[in-house]
Design brief:
This is Deacetylase. The chain is of the alpha/beta class. It has a single domain, classed as Arginase, Chain A (3-Layer(aba) Sandwich), CATH 3.40.800. The chain has ten helices and eight strands. Helix 1 packs across helix 10, helix 8 runs parallel beside helix 9 and helix 9 runs parallel beside helix 10. It is globular and about 45 Å long. About 50% of the residues are buried. The mean pLDDT is about 95.
Length: about 300
Amino acid sequence: MLKIAWSPKYCHPLPKGHRFPMDKYNLLPEQLLYEGTVKDENFFSPDALEERWITNTHQRDYLEKLKNQTLTKSEIRKTGFPLSDALVEREIHIMHGSVKAALYALEYGVAMNIAGGTHHAFTDRGEGFCLLNDIAITANYLLENDLSHKILVVDLDVHQGNGTAEIFQNDNRVFTFSMHGASNYPMHKEKSDLDVGLPDKIEDKAYLKILDVHLKSLLQKVEPDFMIFQSGVDVLESDKLGRLGLSIQGCRERDKMVFEVAQENQTPIMCCMGGGYSERISQIIDAHANTYRLAQEIYF
């Protein structure tokens, strides 16, 4: 059964006009249910993740600053969010959603988190709509509990997974692969194990050819026993922040490629949502929904 993390806490309201599309966290499960891709029993509601699993990745003093609302104005500005207790609580629930989805992936081959993909959070700070790093927290949870020994992070958001790269820069148990817009945020890139910078306006055919070569090579080279997939849909041509040129079909083919490689190699995979900032919310929802449709089609 495809298991999907979702919680009402994912939908914390933001000030009117904020460019982060919080609506998608409600609209996506509604769409998946409406079209029959999933049923109510596919969803599970995460709790707040135990702090010890957060501080296994992030510095304790940074977590305390989040909880006590003592970040500086500059630190808050870098996160992109107006900080609040509810927003921090939301993030801590998202972390548990990804951890629990990973446990379901070990059981079923694949599992998803409607939120997550918070790859811009570093050990000691948040950036770019990310307060805590669910990719890193999940990877460290699996490693700490001997549930995995070699993890491949496949980050296909349009923005480099700079926080994830920093967290695992000295840990060879996690291989970080980020394929992103070369000239997009962040301007200062961290060093992933493999970074593939893409030119502006790259289209489906060229993008998919590059991804195909690297995915097949990495599965042979890294030999992971678990994969974490950051499936941001800000690669779309329609995306306000993306600058790449993929169609919705091209984005779908991207996800299909990742899932098929994982399944063929019998490597469990946890998928977290990532970014998506197209003007029309329907385009964001359709592109994200394709990821869930494919997981059902390929695995179940």
